[in-house]
Amino acid sequence: MAQQEFYNELQKLQIKMSDHRRQQASLKNQEMLKTHEMKSAELTIHDIEETKPESCYVAVGKAYYMKPNTAVVDRLKSTVEKLTNELTVVGNSKAYVEKQISATESSLTELIKATPQALS
């Protein structure tokens, strides 16, 4: 393998690794945000069920509307369910990206080991 080909392949793999690392960071942020939203909804459900008010105020833009307690709890439970599903998808995507990172790292290692004369 010529030195120029080696450097071209090395550059491609480094760019690929950088893209995978960026995806991994993005997925980690998504996971943290969705977890935060889910915990917030779960705590709100817990507080509403603990105090057992007849109705609650729901913010819509700058206005607040009174809604029955059951409607608010049902909406929050559906939000928790939706976020749980989204977290599963993010987890699967994260696992896939980690496999891609591992494969790219092994390709980089093989490339460097296969052509030690190109490093000189």
Automatic annotation (TrEMBL):
Top-rank taxon, per record: Eukaryota
Record keywords, A-Z: Chaperone, Coiled coil
Record bears the keyword Protein biosynthesis: no
GO molecular function annotation: protein folding chaperone; unfolded protein binding
Coiled coil: 3-30
Any Pfam family: Prefoldin_2
Keyword Cell cycle: no
Entry GO CC: cytoplasm; prefoldin complex
Signal peptide: none
InterPro entries: PFD_beta-like, Prefoldin
Family label: Belongs to the prefoldin subunit beta family.
PANTHER family for this protein: PREFOLDIN SUBUNIT 1, PREFOLDIN SUBUNIT 1-RELATED
Protein name as catalogued: Prefoldin subunit
Species whose genome carries this gene: Carpediemonas membranifera
Organism ancestry: Eukaryota, Metamonada, Carpediemonas-like organisms, Carpediemonas
